[in-house]
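Entry, Tuesday afternoon. Goal for today is a structural model of the target with zinc ion bound, before we commit to ordering more compound. Inputs were pasted exactly as handed over by J.K., no edits. I checked the ligand SMILES twice against the vendor sheet because last time a stereocentre got dropped in transcription.
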Amino acid sequence: MQSLVCTEPGKLQLENRAEPVRKKNEVKIKIKRVGLCGTDFHIYEGLHPFLQYPRVMGHEVSGEVFEIDEGSEFKPGDPVILNPYLPCGTCIACRKEKPNCCVNISVLGVHADGGMCEYLIAPVSAIYSAKGLTLDQCAMVEFLSVGAHGVRRGEVRKNDRVLVVGAGPIGLGAAFFASIAGASVTLLDVSEERVNRAASLVKNSVGVALNELAAEQLKQITDGEFFDVVLDATGNKNAMQKSLHYVAHGGTCVFISVVKDDITFSDPLFHSREMRIIGSRNATRVDFEHVIESIRQDLIPTDQLNTHSATLDQLPELFPHWIESRDSMIKAIVRI
Ligand SMILES: [Zn+2]
Ligand SMILES: [Zn+2]
């Protein structure tokens, strides 16, 4: 089968590889769409920690069931979405039903070969039905689920005032699901263009560009009280530390993004608010299913999220250009 292999940082190569063989309790997926995100760019650029090359990238995978055990709830031809975060099933996080932060997590497309090829084998428990979604919509479920998980972690409620810091794809996903939960959403980003575009896509939201006036604006929007829930999706240490200043008394800050650094904060700021600071990693079945159902109900303007598309054999040529233009990218989709 045709496979696109990242043989070393900066090098993508089409190879003919043997089709993988399925075992019991596994599904062989005929891949149709793969979404790209910052993780793939980091792998290509050699910036991903602990990554071993060669690697077939692609963790935002969807397609059709090709082969599965008889008697399964799925049958060949069924459209499915893959949850690429494979848990060990026995560690402390798994025992607490938090497979998304499994101690021994293996992510298809990162720790093991992923979906930039024709067929992929995965445990049956890692696929969800995508009935009612178009193939392109399927390619967007994974990245939206990461934002949906952050919103669930922050326990966003109806009428909450929510601030999403960082209006890239993950922040946009968080903003959609905060809005769907009934919150009024403010988006904050360094790029005025990006924040306005994001705000135009999310119901009941406003965009604020980060400048000297931003803090005052955020204060005014909330009558001086600041936000019930702040969701950070910046991947920037300074922005994450600053986010804590926008949390209302009794409020919550969720760090969806991660930086390889220490985060520091003022204890009086934290203590006086009785603030909750919460981590949010990956996503679980609940989040995937919430996203799939929201797309089915037409609550996400998916047609406006697919900014870049290519076929597998176009990718070695296009990938370096896409990296350059990633600021204007919401979702790039590879069609297989
Ligand atoms: Zn991703
Ligand atoms: Zn585990």
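Residues 141-153 form the longest helix (13 residues).
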